[in-house]
Write the structure tokens for this entry.
Amino acid sequence: MTAPVTAPLTDPLAPRPVDRALDPGFRHGQSTEPNYSGVTSFLRRRYAPDGGGAEVVVWGVPLDVTVSNRPGTRFGPRALRAASAILDGDPLYPFHADPFGPLDVADAGDGVFDYGLPAGIPAAIEAQAARHYARGAHLVTLGGDHFLTYPVLKALVARTRAPVALVQFDAHQDTWDDDGSRVDHGTMITRAVKDGLIRVERSVQVGIRTHAPNDFGIAIIDGYSAGEMGPRALAAAITERVGDAPAYVTFDIDALDPAFAPGTGTPVCGGLSSREALETLRRLGGLDLKGFDVVEVSPPYDHAEITALAGASLAACYLGILAGRKAAGERIAP
Ligand code: MN
Ligand code: MN
């Protein structure tokens, strides 16, 4: 139940704080708009295509050209934003706090690329991510199919000059063979490894429930093992693996069991529950976090917004972690 910020509505024509996404001065606090109406930026943050000077920029990449099975991820960012509206207004569980007290977050809208020129899409995503990084923003990306992680990582590592430990939640390793030319959501980790973007000895893939020919030295905690460990031990194992390396978290929503994320392109049974995933992610606040994405949400295959709400909740959880770091005086910019 969201607490109303306004007095009881005795005059329906009186000015009210609605459509806060369009208010460039809306930097902190929650909007408490009705969940079901208004402009749906992510978590009601102000809409600012140039990032608006925010320290954290959420943006969408409605990519839907590299999937190997069911399509629909082009509708992912919009669905994630719509689902996020219900998370606005109350303190964020389990953080006991409004993340937007300490943290300034803007929604930069969606990346732009030409569906008719698919070969140019990776460079377009990379260039737009690089523009946000050049402004010093910490990027949270709403997908979109999983290929987008590759150009975003290219832009991040070009900015920081520091390859990252990859924490990949996924049913799939995405390490199929690639000579460096494929635009494919099943091979982009191969490209990222070959490009030197990932510190494989510090990286880990969690929830894997398929087999691929290569692991490149990346640790794997498969789906059944992750379930047996539980969130506390799972987060501890991830934290031990990553250590003090700069870390990037990519969350392919198919890491979740299809019961919790039916709306995705390549579902695999036997995955984590949304509770297990959220609780594991929440416990990763000790990592030197440099970025996050949630990908592969395909709304046409979703039911009752289950998948979109799970994805939005994971991104909100990540913002909760960043807010805690900000409140503790830690650096947010990558
Ligand atoms: Mn996957
Ligand atoms: Mn994937």
Summary: The first strand starts at residue 46 and ends at 47.
